[in-house]
Amino acid sequence: MKRSLGHKSSHNGTEPVGKLEHKNGRKVELGKKVTLLRGISIIIGTIVGAGIFISPKGILKNSGSIGMSLMVWIACGVLSLFGALCYAELGTCIKKSGGHYTYLMEAFGPMLAFVKLWIELVAVRPAAMSVISLAFGQYILEPLFMPCSPPPMAVKMATVVGLNTVLFLNSMSVTWTARLQVLLTSCKLLVIIIIIIPGVYKLFKGETSNFDNAFDLSHLHLSEIPLAFYYGMYAYSGWFYLNFVAEEVHSPEKTLPLAICVSMAIVTFCYVLINVAYYTVMTAGELLASEAVAVTFAEKVMGNFSLAVPVFVALSCFGSMNGVTFVVSRLFYVASREKQLPEILSMIHIRRHTPLPAVLILYPLTMVQLFVGNIYSLLNFIGFLRMLYLAFVVLGLLYLRYTKPDLPRPFKVPLFIPVVFVATCFFMVFLSFYSDPTGSGIGLGIALTGIPAYYIFICFNNRPKWIQKTLGPSPLTPNHGAESQTCFG
Question: Which helix (H) or strand (E) holds 385?
Answer without folding.
Answer: helix 375-403
